[in-house]
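ARCHIVE CARD
CATEGORY: sequence design from structure
SOURCE FIELD: tokenized fold
FIELD CONTENT:
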């Protein structure tokens, strides 16, 4: 079976978040179980500068809107790259500090159209698997230009909050006929919505956890698309993301000070000592370290972390935050760290090496998200023996079970509502367990858990087979 993944980011080439992790690592695991999987990405500046040995396949041009747009296709093993320097040869992927690129509508429409063309030029496929709004127009283009082609298109929604909504003037600029600007198609409150198009024109929809698959059919998780999604619920399934344990493993991670596993988890303290020394902080090594690693956006519950920050010095605990995102949050957390230099550390960059050191050094990992389609942070934290404290939503609800002392079951601490007081109560409850037997139980259960891609890759594979069987 031949499958093409079409995505706007994928590790190891380019990553801004969980989408990059999934589109890069799921193909590896699908290949391990015998599927032929190729990946198509835009050729961004950072990929060009990274010195991959890319082989040029061909150059061509198309009329896109009212421009003649040249492009070329490059390849490295199973990955194809679409090179169009005016659109992709830029410092950042989606935005600059002053906001989204104003031509993201053209950048990702062109990418979706050219990826579809490329798949056809390469002889077609059984399954085309697209991801999020950036590639959601591909099934729309397929319905226009290749309506009789047999391949099935699956759209995975990694985060419904991002839909690719642009002004109505976009339609003639992206080779979409005017009749697609209608309520039954791409129109959305007087604008054009790429993700809506993908939801309507894909053969099947998946999202990244069973709970999120239910939540997005309701307000407020549906972001005004709950009606459109509910109409397609028979063709919607939640498949939990995995993580790659070759990539995220404290026993082999080359970036942490001391490697450790389940039997040597006490070495986390040595990692903490080095991290605190490296960051030259006044934080005490004896205090449990709470960590947050994530985008600084309201989705991640950073507001309620900021709300409780001033109470932290009253607790026997320190907090480290690694996050990049909205300026107001970056400024707020830096101000809290300045106010409490012996309790709070704030770093506002994207730094994977530092994130690994934080997973390895921290005792608890905070994810008080408003909504969380799957969440990878808590899965990495489990593996690194950092006990998650999470709000019960989406994938957090599906992967973290609240610890019960009586039964000694559960891999973390959970709470119900997006509320600063509930978060604080959960932190206090977590600290009561630390560093006793209950804490060690939780930590062990977490480290032993299997959130690898094994079972999820098999679920995708059976979905692909189900869809191609229907075709025959
Ligand atoms: P999302 O995809 O919504 O951003 P996930 O939890 O699914 O959230 O994935 C986030 C991924 O990005 C994790 O691998 C996390 O470690 C990483 N990450 C987020 N922010 C940073 C940062 N500032 N520095 C390094 N890694 C980060």
């Amino acid at each position: 079976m031949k499958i093409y993944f079409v995505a706007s980011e994928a590790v190891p080439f380019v990553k801004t978040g969980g989408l990059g992790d999934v589109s890069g690592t799921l193909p590896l695991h699908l290949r391990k179980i015998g599927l032929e999987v190729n990946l198509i990405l835009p050729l961004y500046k950072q990929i060009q500068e990274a010195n991959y040995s890319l082989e040029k396949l061909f150059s061509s041009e198309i009329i896109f809107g009212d421009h003649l747009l040249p492009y070329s296709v490059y390849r490295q093993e199973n990955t194809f790259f679409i090179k169009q320097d005016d659109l992709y040869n830029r410092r950042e992927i989606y935005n600059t500090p002053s906001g989204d690129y104003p031509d993201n509508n053209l950048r990702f429409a062109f990418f979706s159209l050219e990826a579809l063309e490329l798949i056809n030029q390469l002889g077609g496929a059984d399954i085309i698997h697209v991801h999020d709004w950036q590639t959601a127009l591909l099934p729309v283009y397929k319905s226009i230009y290749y309506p009789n082609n047999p391949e099935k298109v699956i759209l995975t929604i990694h985060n419904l909050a991002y839909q690719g909504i642009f002004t109505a003037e976009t339609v003639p600029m992206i080779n979409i006929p005017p009749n697609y600007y209608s309520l039954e198609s791409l129109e959305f409150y007087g604008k054009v919505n790429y993700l809506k198009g993908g939801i309507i024109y894909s053969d099947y929809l998946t999202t990244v956890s069973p709970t999120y698959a239910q939540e997005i059919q309701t307000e407020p998780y549906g972001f005004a698309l709950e009606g459109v999604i509910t109409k397609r619920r028979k063709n919607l399934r939640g498949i939990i993301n995995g993580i790659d344990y070759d990539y995220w493993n404290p026993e082999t991670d080359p970036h942490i000070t001391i490697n450790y596993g389940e039997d040597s988890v006490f070495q986390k303290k040595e990692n903490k000592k080095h991290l605190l020394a490296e960051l030259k902080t006044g934080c005490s090594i004896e205090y449990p370290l709470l960590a947050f690693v994530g985008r600084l956006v309201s989705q991640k519950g950073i507001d309620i972390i900021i709300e409780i920050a001033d109470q932290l010095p009253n607790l026997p605990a320190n907090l480290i935050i690694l996050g990049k995102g909205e300026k107001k949050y970056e400024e707020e957390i830096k101000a809290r760290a300045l106010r409490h230099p012996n309790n709070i550390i704030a770093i506002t960059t994207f730094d994977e090496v530092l994130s690994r050191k934080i997973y390895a050094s921290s005792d608890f990992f905070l994810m008080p998200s408003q909504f969380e389609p799957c969440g990878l942070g808590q899965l990495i934290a489990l593996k690194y023996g950092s006990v998650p404290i999470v709000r019960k939503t989406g994938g957090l609800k599906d992967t973290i079970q609240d610890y019960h002392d009586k039964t000694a079951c559960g891999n973390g601490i959970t709470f119900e509502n997006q509320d600063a007081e509930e978060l604080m109560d959960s932190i206090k409850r977590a600290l009561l367990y630390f560093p006793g037997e209950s804490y060690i139980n939780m930590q062990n259960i977490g480290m032993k858990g299997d959130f690898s891609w094994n079972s999820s890759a098999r679920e995708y594979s059976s979905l692909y087979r189900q869809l191609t069987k229907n075709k025959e």
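CARD ANNOTATION: The CA atoms of residues 308 and 340 lie 12 Å apart. The domain at 2-242+454-471 is CATH 3.40.50.2000 (Rossmann fold).
SHELF: design records, drawer C
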